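Q: Structure tokens for this one, please.
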Amino acid sequence: MAVRIRLSRLGRKKKPFYRIVVQNSEASRNGKFLEIVGTYDPLKSPATVNIQYDKVASWMAKGALPTTTVKSLFKAHPAPAAAE
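A: Here is the predicted structure, written as tokens:
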């Protein structure tokens, strides 16, 4: 079973809102998922991205791979530096 970190679409027609979810790669876009790890709202100015980096790191350590779009969101919104 391949696990992916990808977007799941919510919202109305022409008003998208996305959840960043951990999901089996064979499941449908809005199908059954394992865990919600963040949200993405492209309609706000600037776009709002909320990511739970501890959960993402945990899933990636277990072998989950992000899709191209999610990888670009991670790159555009990096994890905050840990306080020392």
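A few notes: The CA atoms of residues 37 and 52 lie 5 Å apart. Residues 3-76 form a domain with the S16 Ribosomal Protein; Chain: A; fold (CATH 3.30.1320.10).
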